[in-house]
Design a protein that fits this description.
By secondary structure, the protein is of the alpha+beta class. It contains four helices and five strands. It has helices spanning 2-8, 34-41, 45-56, 62-65, and strands at 13-16, 19-20, 23-29, 69-77, 82-89. Strands 1, 2, 3, 4 and 5 form a five-stranded antiparallel β-sheet that branches.
Length: 108
């Protein structure tokens, strides 16, 4: 949550951090700031989401996760106030799991 706190001043509350082999999925709740709530109330929900996507494009998640991140997907939802961040990690040195094929049903 340090990264979100650094970029947004206020860190979101609520998170879930399940990991599986090469992926880390973070779910967030209560992420919208007071200023963003005012924009949403004024009909600017899409502007809030667009600005958040710009900030998310600046993130360097490998510094927080501790392993090289080879893929990063982040998105937000206003009503209800939720977010998700998906980190696809480089295999660890001791990770003996086989690589996941693109058409595999295994998500991670």
């Amino acid at each position: 949550m340090r990264l979100s706190s650094f970029l947004w001043t206020e860190g979101p509350r609520g998170r879930n951090l399940p990991t599986c082999c090469r992926s880390l999925i973070v779910t967030l709740a209560d992420t919208v700031t007071k200023g963003e709530r005012n924009l949403v109330a004024g009909g600017h929900e899409e502007d809030v989401l667009r600005i958040r996507r710009h900030f998310q494009s600046l993130m360097e998640p490998h510094a927080i996760v501790g392993r090289r991140v080879v893929g990063f997907i982040s998105d937000n939802h206003i009503g209800p106030d939720l977010g998700v961040e998906v980190f696809i990690l480089e295999p660890a040195d001791d990770d003996r799991s086989p690589p996941v094929e693109a058409d595999s049903d295994d998500p991670g």
